[in-house]
Amino acid sequence: MATNSIILNRKRNIVYSLCKRLSLDPEIFLGNIEEIDLKSLCCNILKSSRNVDSLKINDEVIRWIEFAENFPVDSQACFGVLNNLNEDLAQKSVLQGNGLKPLEADVVAFSVLHSFVIGFSSSEWQKLPHVMRWMDYIQNTKDIPELFARISVEKPGFEPPVSKIVAKMEADSNATKIVQGAKNANNLEADQKSNKSTTAKKAVGDGETAEKKKLPDKEAVEKDKEVSISLLNIQVGLIRKAWKHPSADSLLVEEIDIGDAKLRQVVSGLAKYCNPVELMNRRVVLITNVKPGKLRDVMSEGLVLCASNEDRSIVEPLLPPEGSKLGERVSFSGIEGKPEAVLNPKKKQLEKVTPHLFTDGKGMATFKGVPFMTSAGPCTSSISNASIK
């Protein structure tokens, strides 16, 4: 099941990337994405372009499409393939042709490799310098859509050679320091013997200081975990019924279908912005692992995510695309992890994540710029540059 999910995600990434490059509508190719193989999918997209004559779907293009189709799922096998790719890229800037301009082969390969290399450490990148250089080059082109999280790479710095004069000055300076150090050696040795206890105490103090210096790094890692969107179980739902809260004018009560046998009851502060009738049979995105509790004596078992403009005069639930499956979990490219069974209110996990939720300039819902993705595409809102809560 996990393998099928990875392959399906690769196909979707390729569809969005190639369609962006070729100015095509990706929705045309998402309908039968589960049944069609990756090679046929790529060829269908390329043949649909108005520039099909100039694309020249030759053997070289097919070779890189087959490379993407056969890229393994197993991590160890992936590293072996990347080592071979690293050797191939040592002799050229892009995959296809001898120039500097990325072509369709680069877009297809990048779309498949991205989810695997996004989590690379500095040491892993150092083993694949040419792949690193190529991935960074491609992600900075206009052909890569916003659904890909940016790959952070540490580029080696360049230090200009030191002139002979400066080198000589440094050598003379070091020589002077050595002579001076020799003159003070005896005094230093005497001081060390007389201050053994002080030195020992200082060593303990330094040890404590070093230990304290390590703490911020550990705390930073823990902090990253606390604000990870993977903690939340965000699912696609369908409102089957909605009505006004019996004792709160600002609240609505919804019964939402997420594919379970029992509908999930959720209380939302939408009465001011939405008519209950208009919400009927509307798709929504909701967090289903919040701790259940009563709001004005009515039980609520989830949180419908909504976008709102700056002054909160307009608020609307996020909209999953048509074709998304009820109950499917919203995914974020490059971000893995299992959600908490139930969020702990004392840890304020939800409060730490929501400041990073917003819609972009096109109304696409994102976490730190990474889109909310479903099997049918991204979740959206009619409100651009909005906060999401």
Written account of the structure:
The protein has 389 residues and is an alpha+beta fold. The protein has helices at residues 2-22, 27-30, 38-47, 52-55, 59-69, 75-89, 104-117, 122-126, 129-139, 164-183, 185-194, 196-226, 276-279, 349-353, and strands at residues 234-244, 252-257, 264-268, 283-287, 293-295, 298-300, 303-304, 306-308, 315-317, 357-359, 365-367, 370-371, 373-374, 377-378, 387-388. The longest helix is centred in the middle third of the chain and has 31 residues, at 196-226. The radius of gyration is 28 Å and the shape is globular. 29% of the residues are buried.
Number of helices: 14
Strand order of the largest sheet: 3-2-1-4-7
Query: Approximately how much beta-strand content do the residues carry?
Result: 5-15%
How many strands, which pairing sense, and closed or not: the largest β-sheet?
5 strands, antiparallel
Q: pLDDT below 50 for ≥5 consecutive residues: which ranges?
A: none
Radius of gyration: 28 Å
- Helix-strand pattern, N to C? HHHHHHHHHHHHEEEHEEEEEEHEEEEEE
The chain-level mean pLDDT equals 82
Calculate the terminal CA-CA distance, rounded to whole Å.
31 Å
| Overall geometric form | globular
Q: What structural category characterises the helix and strand content?
A: alpha+beta
Percent helix = 40-55%
Number of strands: 15
Please give the structural blueprint.
Blueprint: H1 2-22, H2 27-30, H3 38-47, H4 52-55, H5 59-69, H6 75-89, H7 104-117, H8 122-126, H9 129-139, H10 164-183, H11 185-194, H12 196-226, E1 234-244, E2 252-257, E3 264-268, H13 276-279, E4 283-287, E5 293-295, E6 298-300, E7 303-304, E8 306-308, E9 315-317, H14 349-353, E10 357-359, E11 365-367, E12 370-371, E13 373-374, E14 377-378, E15 387-388
Antiparallel strand pairs: 1-2, 1-4, 2-3, 4-7, 5-6, 8-9, 8-15, 10-11, 11-12, 13-14
Helix pairs in contact: 1-3, 1-7, 5-7, 6-9
